[in-house]
UniProtKB/TrEMBL annotation:
Enzyme Commission designation: 3.6.4.13
Physiological role: RNA helicase.
Gene3D superfamilies given in the database record: P-loop containing nucleotide triphosphate hydrolases
Residue numbers covered by motif Q motif: 33-62
Protein name (database record): ATP-dependent RNA helicase
Residues annotated as domain DEAD-box RNA helicase Q: 33-62
Keyword field: ATP-binding, Helicase, Hydrolase, Nucleotide-binding, RNA-binding
Residue ranges of coiled coil: none
One of the record's GO molecular function terms: RNA binding
Ranges where the Helicase ATP-binding domain occurs: 65-258
Length: 601
């Protein structure tokens, strides 16, 4: 096994970045060579330059493309927004255009790209279409959940040379679409490999590999077919973890590791590969170190901050920061992450409809839209066509706010996103890395802001363990900048955020708005319930940081502009909490009671 490590990590601190917040130097992003020097076909190089305006390859492209062209199995770990998509698509196209006789549709699928989400599926397909412009005989296509099966069947019957797919729908077609020809399959690519597994597609992937006869013998495989071509499998992500190790063991043979440093791979597995070993099965698995101690590749020019907000003031602070950002720069794109679909729906309606005038609250005529920017939403419970519309709109808009769940956290490449706000904290550091990776792409500058309650600040230490450090956001300065009743509260020092006049006034206005709108009240209640459920679902080490029992549910309700904690859920939730406390007490008391009983008798 050979390892090729990416460029040296920059050691610029977050503070230095803020003082000197500009684009990453070109040399940090692009290699000093050309696409043609990597061995790609001239027409493909022309296409990359003329149609896509790619002048030079990025570092990961320069490292990985020759290795992929050489037919190696590859595991790529490179920062978000460094061009991994072209890294795997270009070599595949290079080889396919070179087949004699020319490939045609009747020969079915030659390359398969597996992705975790529908949006990423569409995005990869769009890039494929651009790259294939000069190679009309190579047909791109996609299959994914939410689309019409029968239309997909018809397309598969006609033949798709490079197929992009989500795992569930692909497996469906492998089982049920007999006209789907995959006997010529030569490449299987897992884009965002770790996410595919995290979403619970592990079983599907095993079945897919079995169906395609690409699961390695010795890993419980049914299929170990002899193929006309040597199969080549590729795994890529900005974050690789233990789960990927399993997939790598199953699907990669003697892989070349690109961008993976010594810390992430245990020394005994760094086998030097000899030329004659190339086709040998990987004798030893790749062992990643536990993800809790691994450093992640974050764009060096990304400015990362956190804001510490008491629970009850969260909503007001969110709205205030958004207002501040859009007033400072109207033409910008921001992505705002939530933990649940209900939370997205509530905040989307609130931000789209809430009107207010901080200067004359009594006069309805003076009310203005609180946030004047185009607002969009994206989550997994939306209809497919609405997801498609949002995805397209946020790609083309110059100024917009996108509210989303983690469905937008992986791989999506929205141009010119300026800032990422994580209003609800991510599941773990991996998700943090991917969420913030929607900005600061390809050397562009970008900001990220993580909301934390005072009881959650230990999360910063968890991120530190992964080499991610955040500076504090100057919240008070921002709150003080808003004029209230025509005056900016100058000179006064407000010690607590909850008692800041701007916060108090805006909170009151939000609560009145919600109270007056039954539709909004229901959305708020639903969002409250699912938010609490999501909070209880934090896994692993994070359970000790995001502890439901530390939450004040009345304050949580306030963060949904509810004057009271929703009674129904509140009751059942309180009952659960009480029961848990009772059980805990019982556990502690158990032996003592026994002793008491014993002493009585
Ligand atoms: N050589 C290049 N020159 C200029 N732009 C490029 C080049 N390669 C890729 N890009 C652009 O860089 C952006 C990021 O690429 P891509 O989405 O493939 O990144 P990624 O590494 O897959 O990110 P993520 O980890 O978030 O999925 C895209 O807009 C892409 O068009």
């Amino acid at each position: 096994m050979v390892k090729i490590t990416e460029k040296k990590k920059t050691t610029t601190t977050n503070k230095e970045k803020m003082n000197n917040n500009k684009k990453e130097p070109e040399s940090e992003i692009f290699a000093s060579c050309s696409f043609s020097s990597l061995g790609l076909h001239p027409s493909l190089c022309d296409q990359l330059r003329d149609r896509m305006a790619f002048e030079a390859p990025t570092h990961v492209q320069a490292q990985a493309i020759p290795v992929i062209l050489a037919g190696e199995h590859v595991l790529v770990n490179a920062a978000t927004g460094t061009g991994k998509t072209v890294t795997y698509l270009a070599p595949v196209i290079h080889h396919l255009q070179d087949y004699t006789p020319r490939i045609d549709r009747s020969r079915g699928t030659f390359a398969l790209v597996l992705v975790p989400t529908r949006e990423l599926c569409m995005q990869v397909y769009e890039i494929l279409q651009k790259l294939l412009h000069r190679f009309h005989w190579i047909v791109p296509g996609y299959v994914m959940g939410g689309e019409s099966r029968s239309k997909e069947k018809a397309r598969l019957r006609k033949g798709i040379s490079i197929l992009v797919a989500t795992p569930g729908r692909l497996l469906d077609h492998l089982k049920n679409t007999s006209s789907f020809v995959h006997t010529n399959l030569r490449w299987i690519i897992f884009d965002e490999a770790d996410r595919i597994l995290e979403l619970g597609f592990g079983k599907e992937i095993e079945e897919i590999l079995d169906f395609l006869g690409s699961r390695k013998s010795g890993s419980g495989s049914k299929g170990n077919e002899v193929h006309e071509f040597k199969r080549q499998n590729l795994l890529l992500s900005a974050t690789l973890n233990e789960k990927v190790n399993h997939l790598a063991k199953m699907s990669l043979e003697n892989p070349v590791l690109i961008g993976i440093d010594d810390k992430k791979v245990q020394p005994d597995t760094l086998l030097e590969r000899k030329g004659s070993d190339m086709n040998k099965e990987m004798e030893q698995p790749i062992k990643m170190t536990n993800s809790s101690s691994a450093d992640y590749n974050l764009p060096a020019q990304l400015v990362q901050r956190y804001v510490k907000v008491p629970c009850g003031a969260r909503l007001v602070v969110l709205l205030s920061i958004l207002k501040h950002l859009f007033e400072r720069e109207a033409s910008q794109k921001i992505v705002l992450f939530f933990s649940t679909c209900d939370a997205v729906d509530f905040h989307y309606s609130l931000l789209s409809e809430f009107q207010w005038s901080p200067n004359s609250q009594s006069d309805a005529e003076h009310k203005q839209q609180f946030l004047r920017c185009k607002t969009l939403r994206l989550h997994g419970n939306m209809k497919q066509e609405d997801r498609r519309t949002t995805f397209g709109a946020f790609q083309t808009e110059k100024a917009a706010l996108l509210l989303s769940t983690d469905v937008a956290s992986r791989g999506l490449d929205f141009p010119k996103v300026k800032c990422i706000i994580q209003y609800d904290s991510p599941g773990d550091a991996t998700e943090y890395v991917h969420r913030v990776g929607r900005t600061a792409r390809l050397g562009q500058r970008g900001d990220s802001l993580l909301f934390l309650q005072p009881i959650e600040v230990d999360y910063l230490q968890d991120l530190e363990k992964h080499g991610v450090s955040l500076a504090e956001y100057p919240l008070m300065k921002v709150l003080d900048s808003f004029p209230l009743y025509g005056q900016v509260p100058r000179g006064k020092k407000f010690v607590s955020i909850d008692l800041h006049p701007w916060v108090l006034t805006l909170q009151k206005a939000l609560e009145s708005f919600i109270l007056a709108e039954p539709k909004m009240k229901n959305l708020a209640k639903d969002a409250f319930c699912s938010w609490v459920r999501a909070y209880t679902a934090h896994r692993g080490e994070l359970k000790g940081i995001f502890m439901v029992k530390k939450l004040h549910l009345g304050h949580v309700a306030k963060s949904f502009a509810l004057k009271e904690q929703p009674s129904l859920v509140g009751k059942s939730f309180q009952m659960q909490t009480k029961k848990r406390k009772r059980d805990q007490k019982q556990k502690q008391k158990g032996p003592m009671r026994k002793r008491k009983v014993a002493s009585k008798t």
